[in-house]
C-alpha cells in the first residue's frame, strides 16, 4: 500500500508540473491564445509531467524494489507504452460511461481510478520490475 501511495503522489507531482507548464505557456500571450496554442501548451506540459513521473517512479516509488537498477533502455519504452495504454483506458472509459449518460465528473473520476490502478500494476510488475541477470 505504501508503494501505491508513493505512485499516486508521483502522479500528483507530475500533474502539478503539467498544469504549471500549461498555465505558464498559455498566459505568456498578450491576447487570448488560440486553441492550437493551448493544445501545444498542454502537450508540452503533459510531456514535462510524464518525464517527472518517470523520474519519480524510477528513482523513488520503484527504487525500493530496485527499479532504479532497470536500464533506461528497457524501462523508458515500457513506461511510454503504459502511458499510451492509460490514455486508451481513459478515452474508452469516458466514451462508454458518458454514452450511458453518467455525469462527466463521475465518469472522469472512474477513468482516473482505472488508469491509476492499471498504471501502477503495469509499472510495478513490468516497467520497473527488477530481475537478476
Explain this structure.
By secondary structure, the protein is mostly helical. The protein has one domain. Helices cover 78% and strands 0% of the residues. It contains four helices and no strands. Helix 1 (2-26) packs antiparallel against helix 2 (35-61).
Layout of helices and strands, plus pairs?
Layout: H1 2-26, H2 35-61, H3 72-99, H4 104-127
Radius of gyration: 17 Å
String of helices and strands: HHHH
Distance between the termini: 28 Å
Helical proportion, percent range: over 70%
- Report the portion of residues in β strands: under 5%
List unreliable stretches of 5+ residues: none
Major beta sheet summary: none
Count of spatially separate domains: 1
Structural class: mainly alpha
- Please report the total strand number as a whole number: 0
Shape: globular
Number of helices: 4
Amino acid at each position: 500500500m505504501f508503494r501505491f501511495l508513493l505512485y499516486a503522489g508521483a502522479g500528483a507531482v507530475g500533474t502539478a508540473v503539467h498544469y504549471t507548464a500549461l498555465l505558464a505557456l498559455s498566459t505568456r500571450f498578450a491576447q487570448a491564445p488560440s486553441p492550437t496554442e493551448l493544445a501545444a501548451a498542454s502537450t508540452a506540459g503533459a510531456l514535462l509531467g510524464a518525464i517527472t513521473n518517470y523520474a519519480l517512479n524510477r528513482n523513488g516509488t520503484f527504487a525500493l524494489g530496485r527499479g532504479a537498477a532497470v536500464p533506461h533502455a528497457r524501462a523508458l519504452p515500457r513506461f511510454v507504452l503504459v502511458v499510451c495504454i492509460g490514455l486508451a483506458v481513459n478515452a474508452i472509459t469516458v466514451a462508454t460511461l458518458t454514452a450511458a449518460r453518467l455525469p462527466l465528473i463521475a465518469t472522469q473520476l472512474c477513468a482516473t481510478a482505472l488508469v491509476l490502478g492499471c498504471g501502477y500494476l503495469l509499472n510495478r510488475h513490468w516497467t520497473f520490475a527488477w530481475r537478476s541477470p
